[in-house]
């Protein structure tokens, strides 16, 4: 019989790609992770990993078993959720990840929840979803700057539309933008092009809150979501565009009372 905890480690490895990453995510040592995966190989009777001096990769059999492991873990989570629902058990630890600009809006509501023990973490973009897939996070609050296709195993609930505005003078010669690999960058440049804005320079900064503070200091203008401007006083111009704020859960946890209680609190932020 294959042991569930070792299947979970294989699932983590398939998602994260290295033993060191699995160790960091689970709190085990790298040697312990390696040993447990070796035990799983003996249980399965086939090689699951191809090991070299510095790395490891899944064999074809390892990929097949990792896919089954994901299905098994989803089924176990769904069973636990069903039993908790039958008992109306709202207790338990629920880890919520949120993007920085939404944290101020959601934190007061999460603190007020009675029943589940809510733990709040800050992760953004793909990292938040990766931690959700590997069960380090139970609910991921993420933003979408363009339509997002459904992903098997995950369920998205829209929390709100966050309007995008031009913060600062539209005719400012300097515009502040996120780095090119950030999802907000392309949207900002599209809006600037639609408005016929051709800034003399574009300064790159990581973090929408940082950009908002620089706009407030008169350094430049920027396309920003309204939530990023809660604590700064700057002139704004509507763009008619918005980003979508979603709460994402694993489908297996749907119906678990503790998750439902937190989701109910999150949906009240709109």
TrEMBL record:
From the Swiss-Prot or TrEMBL record, give the protein name.
DNA-binding transcriptional LysR family regulator
Sorted alphabetically, which Pfam families does this protein's record hold?
HTH_1, LysR_substrate
Tell me which stretches of the chain form a coiled coil: none
Q: Which residues form the signal peptide?
A: 1-23
Keyword terms: DNA-binding, Signal, Transcription, Transcription regulation
Q: Which residues form the HTH lysR-type domain?
A: 2-59
User: Any idea which GO molecular function terms this record carries?
Assistant: DNA-binding transcription factor activity; transcription cis-regulatory region binding
Q: Heme as a keyword?
A: no
């Amino acid at each position: 019989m294959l042991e569930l905890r070792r299947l979970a480690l294989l699932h983590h490895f398939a998602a994260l790609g290295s033993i060191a990453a699995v160790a960091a995510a689970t709190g085990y040592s790298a040697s312990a992770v390696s040993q447990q995966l070796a035990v799983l190989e003996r249980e399965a009777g086939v090689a699951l990993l191809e090991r070299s001096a510095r790395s490891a990769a899944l064999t074809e059999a390892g990929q097949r078993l990792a896919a089954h492991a994901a299905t098994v873990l989803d089924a176990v989570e769904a069973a636990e959720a069903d039993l908790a629902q039958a008992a109306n058990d709202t207790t338990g630890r629920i880890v919520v990840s949120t993007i920085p600009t939404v944290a101020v809006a959601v934190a007061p509501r999460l603190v007020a929840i009675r029943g589940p023990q809510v733990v709040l973490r800050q992760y953004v973009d793909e990292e938040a979803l990766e931690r959700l897939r590997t069960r380090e996070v139970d609910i991921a609050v993420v933003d979408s700057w363009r339509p997002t296709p459904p992903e098997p195993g995950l369920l998205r609930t829209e929390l709100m539309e966050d309007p995008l505005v031009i913060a600062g003078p539209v005719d400012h010669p300097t515009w502040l933008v996120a780095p090119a690999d950030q999802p907000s960058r392309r949207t900002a440049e599209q809006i600037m092009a639609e408005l016929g804005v051709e800034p003399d320079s574009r300064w790159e900064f990581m973090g929408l809150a940082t950009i908002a503070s620089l706009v407030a200091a008169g350094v430049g203008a920027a396309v920003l979501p309204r939530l990023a401007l809660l604590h700064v006083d700057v002139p704004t111009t509507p763009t008619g565009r918005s980003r979508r704020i979603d709460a994402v859960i694993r489908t297996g946890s749907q119906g678990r009372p503790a998750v439902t209680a937190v989701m109910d609190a999150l949906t009240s932020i709109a």
